[in-house]
Design a protein that fits this description.
This protein is α+β, with helices and mostly antiparallel strands. It is built from 2 helices and 3 strands. The longest helix is centred in the C-terminal third of the chain and has 12 residues.
């Protein structure tokens, strides 16, 4: 199973959309990773929504659709 997740950062007032087979672990990584990434600048990220998809291909296409 794959999921689309939408995160929100109060500190930078931005949303982040991603996909993962385990979104709760992925969100934890966004909030704790030591790498200098887009999401590292907006910590802490808050989970706003999560959607289950059919498979990875569907998750990728849905993520792209939402981002447009």
């Amino acid at each position: 199973k794959y999921y689309i997740y939408i995160l929100y950062s109060c500190s930078i007032d931005k949303y982040y959309i991603g996909y993962s087979c385990d979104p709760y672990i992925r969100i934890k990584v966004h909030n704790t990773s030591r790498l200098n990434t887009f999401t590292s600048k907006g910590r802490p990220w808050i989970l706003k929504s999560i959607f289950q998809t059919k498979n990875k291909t569907h998750a990728i296409s849905m993520e792209r659709f939402i981002k447009k």
